[in-house]
Amino acid sequence: MHEPSAMSSAVQYVYLASAALFILSLKWMGQVKTARRGNWAGASAMVLAVVGTLIGGGISGQGYLWIAGAMVVGAAIGTPMAIVMPMTAVPQRTALSHAFGGLAAALVGVAEYLENREHLSTFTVGALSAEMLLGFLTFTGSLFAFGKLQEIISTRPVVYPGRNIVSLGTLVIAVLSGVYLTIDPSSTLAFGTLIATSLAFGVFLIIPIGGADMPTVIAILNAYAGLSASAMGFVMNNKLLIIAGALDGTSGLILSILMCKAMNRSFANVLFAGVGAVQPSKGGAKAPGGKTIVGYSIEDAKAVLEDTRLVIIVPGYGMAVAQAQHAVKELANVLAAQGTDVKFAIHPVAGRMPGHMNVLLSEADVPYDQLWEMERVNSSFPEADVAIVVGANDVTNPAARTNKESPLYGMPILDVDKARTVIFIKRSMNPGFAGVDNELFLLDKTMMVFGDAKKVMTDLIAAFKEGAH
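The chain above was modelled as a monomer; its predicted structure follows.
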């Protein structure tokens, strides 16, 4: 039995430090105040993991050249994504990252199979099959999620008769192909079928899911990518990959469970119910039942906001689309200057990914103590003089409490309708991602201010400043 070399021992210590930092990263990112530290810890862990692998991975000189080339290509793609894509496009960037991560894991599995299939153990082929299945479905699923988030393809669910049978049938074929490949590693038919059906299932998984469920889908795809990396760790006999992938997979799974809980929905309902398939109405200002919705002016909104004690701002996807977070922050400053207490109400599934609103408001330097989660802030709405809703639709819809026929029924919402006055900033009367009209529009206390959120906010700020002179 050979004693481990000093270099090998050093690499294991580097891996141990990396694993510890990954764990601490998740712990610190669990709280807003330590999230920045968590990001740095995660990035440092990844640097250590890469350095340790380069040093102790038994890589030849030619191998280093290939790795260097791949790093150049990756940097050429990743750098513009980080610099050019705005913070409002974080969900799209996250989806693309999942796609690349899933594809990388799957291709490693393909390469390992093609190079060593005659010498792989049954366990290794089983892990390799799981790696390819999860990696390839994450790749196509994340690409289609990106397309929906970027609105390259419709954000509405694509529903058709028997869609769940087609989707689940494709998954069953993929799993059975993986099982057969594990039993008979020489079967190129099973290998090809596994790849094709995994890629197809990723598409079938995402297209019936609407924009309202994108936060949960992002978390689920994160879990798949992590589990694929963990399976790759078993294939490559790399303990750090197993640990990092398991952390990624389980954290994504836990997050998706929390997202489902926040919507009072099950996994099956999110993945297969096709919520949001109802087509929106064509603009206009007509509400259900024919009631005419009156559009209020900037001066009307300003008059209501003067001499207020408590104003609660509810950000949503409309704020993200308009890139209005900085204007929202400036309005909050204007209100605070007149003695108004300002809070931001954050719904856990507002926007297009978990924490979307927190990220945008953080970019605008909104203080952490002004960000109030749904459970804390709902008791404050009855005391609020005004609730300003900036493009948050489904998460403020009272139908979630009262209408059993609504797809939103049972979802915990922000109790915006309990404020004394509601200013709802919206581009049109189109419903939200769930495809249902918001009953909040019909309340006498609601003032609809139509327009781009950033422009409305900018005009409102200007009106306050003009009145101050």
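Residues 275-286 have pLDDT under 50 and may be disordered.
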